[in-house]
């Protein structure tokens, strides 16, 4: 049998087959006995270890049952009952020394101590390496034992392991193997800052590597740390080493190498093989020219100073992005510069069982000609031998699919001359050298790759279908190769046939395969690793699946937190973990987006793993967040606007968004625009029709500021959602909004048709006076824009019949009267409107009325009074944060100054109005302002000396 305590609890038979030990209590009992092999362990000790202070009355009988179960679990047919002896005072477990890893470790430790006393550093190196090879992690990490039982045992072993490490590096330094161990010692110093032996060994390794300044800095760090933590100076030995490094003491030089390398741990370099293991490069390699040039250019510089850090060129990227293909291509182009061999090793970092560094080192040593029986045990010993064999040689080592930096670090040569290429789905940032993150191919490179596989003529025959295929593949080289290969193998298919199959809803991943290669398999490997995250199923794995339900646009942490119903700090950690795993992209700080094929995988996994109810609730939470945010923005962008009703919205208290002012609300809408507009379609598609039209309605105040296409698309979908929900009021709201969107782009004839449909919804239904008044007033504005002011006047008057106190309609009526030359009547209506506005404290409508008053007074050729009206409007708009209204009033104020013969003041107002219009997206008025400014500046008189208007 074999028992392992130096890591997770292991029980294996002689052939290495695991022998599961049933219940947690049985595992605890066996572990307690293994911690004291061949020793009588009292009943009380065992009971306390298994039950703590809550020992049940049936403990004694239960112990007998557990012992019987362990005997059955360990039964190998040879009679194992004698392994556990039960005595009146306790239990004894009989274990041979070579069966228990702790006993083996202690044996190597004793022999290493004796070899050290004899100064047999070769033996010390081999024995400490064998001892360290037994360690698999924290002892008994998966056995439930009280800390009073487990703690002293683990602390004793950890201390022994540190002692072994000290002796191991001491042997390396005595044998002149200082190259490459500085990084390992630096990690130990960071983990054990008060262990002075590691500090001294790090200083000496740095000094012998020609890095005296770093060695002195290491001492200074040690001195400050020890003083800070203990209030004393370092031990005299460390102080003396510091002085000798300062004096460049010749006695600190590298000791003479032994005449022959130890027979037990390797072979001489002269007999080592020259491996040539690179996979074949693909004949039609296309794209990635810039990345290839960077790697090859750096690899060409092989003459580096003695002791220089080995450059690690690493390429990271998501599955299917061509990392290995690029690295193999680069390796073949530069292999002539590495005549001592090229090694390729697949580390399996994205599999559920990545290759351990110890195993990888064994394969590397075998590649270099080391016989199997000469490969030492343990990472430290193997890494040291590998560095020794590679030192002085020019080798190219390609490590494919690395899991993390810890897997790679022991595999690096210790001296300059060789080069290491690494591919990984994770970003390995702790190594020097070139680092390239591979994303999607640009469109022109993707087109070239597809053409090289399918044929130029076949692709050129259907450009639109080709564009659809390229979009479906998202610039992923693997997807393009598989799509192209399937098409090339099917002469009867056209590019249109392939495009149709790829764009058939939900089938894209099923279509992207050829032979044993599947895009889904390549992508899903990264997801499988998420399931091993300590957060478990509720962490990044769940986040990945549900975030796939997002629209295919960039999103922020707040939106993700709303969808996942989690706090933002946790969600941000998950998002960054997904970025590191190349399952998400981060196009800007705090913004995240899926690659189209990765999102397709996330959606498929969500459908396979999460219930329909869970998926629907996630979408509902996201769209509710969009609704709250859009409504809060409307409160700042158009304070007097009619607000969408929010009652009866599920989760109304989640995802609350608030803004301090106009600028903050507008900036949020700009940032989230694509998500908000896409949220309307997402909600409608999920059957959340009420949410869909309400989000569209709540976006009105923002979309009117130059987002006419989004206004039209969101309200068109909102109208379909309202009709699907059977909500007539919602239908009329959307029709009214569609009319407004057409008015905003100067199409009043189209707007009238939408308004008339809205009118037909309201007519004949009681309690709709307010709605009828608003629609009739809007129809009046259409006739105003069409120049039919008589018709406009009639509609405004009809609107006031339904809503006599509507200040907005009275403002419009005054505008119509002024256009008919009835300025006095217009001013009288404005006086009546102003009285209503003061009574209702409607400051926004009052500001609009004052701006219209300025327009009327200008038409009446009373520019001085017009200036005063515009100024009053500006005061209210600035107080209310209405930036758009302020820009419109500045436009009119500039006109009034121009009418009054003050061109300099007019230009100053128009320039400020233009800045506002451009910032807010009101392009129609911006064009007119630029025209006026150009005319004034082209005038021979010029604008004169400008003064800042009030």
Instruction: State Rg.
Output: 39 Å
Enter the CATH topology name of one domain.
Rossmann fold
State the shape: elongated
Sheet with the most strands? 5 strands, parallel
CATH arch. level architecture of one domain = 3-Layer(aba) Sandwich
Mean pLDDT: 84
Organism: Streptomyces tanashiensis
InterPro entries: AfsR-DnrI-RedD_regulator (IPR051677), Apaf_helical (IPR042197), BTAD (IPR005158), NB-ARC (IPR002182), OmpR/PhoB-type_DNA-bd (IPR001867), P-loop_NTPase (IPR027417), Sig_transdc_resp-reg_C-effctor (IPR016032), TPR-like_helical_dom_sf (IPR011990)
Keywords: DNA-binding, Repeat, TPR repeat, Transcription, Transcription regulation, Two-component regulatory system
Protein name: Tetratricopeptide repeat protein
């Amino acid at each position: 049998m074999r028992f392992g305590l130096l890591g997770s609890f292991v029980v294996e038979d002689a052939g290495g087959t695991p022998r599961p030990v049933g219940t947690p209590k049985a595992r605890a009992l066996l572990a307690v006995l293994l911690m004291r092999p061949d020793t009588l362990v009292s009943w009380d000790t065992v009971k306390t270890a298994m039950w703590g202070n809550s020992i049940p009355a049936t403990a004694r009988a239960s112990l007998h049952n557990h012992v019987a179960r362990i005997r059955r679990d360990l039964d190998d047919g040879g009679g194992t009952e004698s392994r556990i002896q039960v005595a009146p005072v306790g239990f004894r477990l009989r274990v041979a020394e070579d069966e228990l890893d702790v006993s083996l470790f202690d044996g190597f430790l004793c022999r290493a101590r004796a070899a050290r006393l004899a100064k047999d550093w070769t033996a010390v190196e081999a024995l400490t390496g064998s001892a360290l090879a037994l360690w698999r992690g924290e002892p008994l990490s998966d056995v439930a034992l009280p800390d009073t039982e487990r703690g002293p045992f683990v602390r004793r072993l950890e201390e022994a392991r540190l002692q072994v490490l000290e002796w191991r590096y001491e042997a390396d330094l005595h044998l002149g193997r200082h190259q490459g161990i500085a990084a390992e010692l630096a990690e130990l110093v960071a983990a054990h800052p008060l262990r002075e032996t590691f500090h001294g060994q790090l200083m000496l390794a740095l000094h012998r590597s020609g890095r005296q300044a770093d060695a002195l800095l290491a001492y200074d760090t040690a001195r400050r740390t020890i003083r800070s933590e203990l209030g004393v100076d370092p031990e005299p030995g460390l102080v003396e080493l510091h002085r000798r490094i300062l004096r460049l003491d010749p006695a600190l030089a590298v000791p003479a190498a032994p005449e022959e390398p130890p027979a037990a741990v390797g072979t001489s370099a002269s007999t080592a093989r020259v491996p040539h293991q690179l996979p074949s490069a693909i004949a039609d390699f296309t794209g990635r020219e810039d990345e290839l040039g960077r790697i090859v250019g750096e690899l060409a510089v092989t003459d580096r100073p003695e002791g220089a850090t080995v450059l690690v060129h690493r390429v990271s990227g998501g599955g299917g992005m061509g990392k290995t293909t690029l690295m193999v291509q680069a390796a073949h182009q530069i292999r002539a510069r590495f005549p001592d061999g090229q090694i390729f090793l697949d580390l399996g970092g994205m599999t559920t069982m990545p290759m351990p560094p110890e195993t990888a080192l064994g394969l590397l040593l075998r590649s270099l000609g080391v016989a199997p029986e000469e490969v030492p045990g343990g990472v430290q010993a193997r890494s040291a031998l590998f560095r020794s064999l590679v030192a002085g040689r020019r080798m190219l080592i390609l490590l494919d699919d690395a899991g993390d930096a810890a897997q790679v670090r022991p595999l690096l040569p210790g001296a300059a001359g060789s080069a290491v290429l690494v591919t990984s789905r994770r970003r390995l940032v702790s190594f020097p050298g070139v680092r390239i993150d591979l994303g999607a191919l640009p469109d022109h490179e993707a087109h070239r790759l597809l053409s090289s596989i399918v044929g130029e003529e076949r692709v050129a025959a259907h450009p639109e279908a080709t564009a659809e295929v390229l979009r479906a593949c998202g610039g992923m080289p693997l997807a393009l190769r598989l799509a192209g290969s399937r098409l090339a193998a099917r002469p009867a298919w056209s590019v249109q046939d392939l495009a149709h199959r790829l764009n058939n809803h939900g089938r894209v991943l099923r279509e992207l395969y050829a032979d044993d290669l599947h895009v889904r398999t390549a992508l899903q490997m990264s997801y499988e690793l998420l399931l091993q995250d300590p957060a478990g199923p509720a962490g990044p794995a769940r986040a990945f699946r549900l975030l796939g339900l997002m629209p295919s646009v960039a999103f922020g942490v707040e939106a993700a937190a709303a969808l996942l119903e989690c706090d933002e700090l946790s969600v941000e950690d998950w998002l960054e973990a997904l970025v590191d795993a190349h399952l998400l992209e981060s196009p800007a700080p705090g913004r995240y987006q899926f690659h189209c094929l990765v999102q397709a995988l996330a959606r498929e996994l969500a459908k396979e793993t999460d219930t329909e109810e869970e998926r629907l609730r996630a979408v509902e939470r996201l769209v509710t967040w969009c609704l709250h945010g859009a409504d809060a923005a409307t409160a700042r962008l158009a304070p007097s606007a009619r607000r969408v009703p929010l009652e009866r919205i599920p989760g109304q208290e989640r995802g609350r968004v608030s803004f301090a002012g106009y600028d903050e609300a507008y900036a949020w809408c700009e940032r989230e625009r694509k998500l908000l507009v896409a949220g309307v379609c997402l909600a409608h598609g999920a059957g959340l029709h009420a949410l869909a039209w309400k989000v569209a309605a709540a976006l009105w105040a923002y979309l009117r500021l130059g987002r006419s296409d989004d206004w039209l698309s969101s309200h068109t979908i909102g109208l379909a959602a309202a009709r699907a929900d059977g909500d007539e009021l919602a239908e009329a709201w959307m029709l009214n909004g569609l009319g407004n969107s057409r008015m905003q782009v100067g199409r009043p004839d189209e707007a009238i048709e939408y308004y008339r449909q809205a009118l037909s919804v309201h007519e004949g239904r009681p309690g709709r006076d307010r709605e009828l008044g608003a629609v009739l007033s809007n129809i009046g504005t259409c006739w105003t824009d069409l120049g039919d002011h008589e018709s406009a006047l009639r509609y405004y008057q009809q609107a006031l019949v339904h809503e006599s106190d509507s200040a907005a309609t009275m403002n419009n009526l005054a505008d119509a009267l002024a256009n008919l030359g009835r300025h006095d009547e217009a001013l009288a209506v404005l006086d009546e409107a102003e009285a209503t506005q003061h009574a209702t404290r409607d400051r926004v409508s009052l500001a609009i009325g004052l701006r219209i008053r300025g327009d009327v007074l200008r038409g009446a050729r009373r520019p001085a009074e017009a200036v005063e009206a515009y100024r009053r409007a500006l005061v209210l708009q600035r107080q209310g944060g209405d930036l758009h209204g302020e820009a419109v009033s500045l436009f009119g104020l500039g006109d009034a100054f121009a009418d009054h013969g003050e061109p300099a003041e007019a230009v100053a107002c128009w320039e400020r109005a233009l800045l506002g219009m451009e910032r807010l997206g009101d392009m129609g008025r911006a064009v007119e302002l630029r025209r006026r400014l150009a005319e004034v500046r082209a005038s021979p008189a010029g604008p004169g000396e400008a003064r800042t208007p009030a």
